[in-house]
Amino acid sequence: MAFVRSLLGTKKTLSRSTSAAPKGFLAVYVGESQKKRFLVPISYLNQPSFQTLLSKSEELFGFDHPMGGLTIPCPEDTFINVTSRLQ
Q1: Which of 59, 64, 69, 85 has the highest Cβ tally under 10 A?
Q2: Dihedral sign from CA coordinates of 21, 61, 13, 52
Q3: 31 CB neighbour count, 10 Å cutoff
Q4: Are 13 and 87 in contact, with CB atoms under 8 Å apart?
Q5: Which family is it part of (predicted)?
Q6: Which tens digit of pLDDT belongs to each residue from 60-74?
């Protein structure tokens, strides 16, 4: 958790992307059945509400994520609602 707390980044608008994550951003896959890829600022890793989403992901997947990247198992609208409060 200390590693997560030490990461810093600029807060930018949440976006969906299919390319590599730019510096300062983290790609996550969100959804229950059909997953969508989002780029989020790494500064979100410090936020308690985002950490809650990460904890749910850890409980469900551990370190074996089916998409090959970080997968957050919640509805897309819930994810957008949580992250929109962080901007």
Answers
A1: 69
A2: negative
A3: 17
A4: yes
A5: Belongs to the ARG7 family.
A6: 777 665 666 788 888
Residue matched to tokens 């989002």: 38
Residue 36 · residue 30 · CB < 8 Å: yes
0.70 exceeded by the pTM?
no
The answer to whether 20 and 26 are in contact (CB under 8 A) is no
Question: Which positions ≥6 away from 80 have C-beta within 8 Å?
Answer: 14
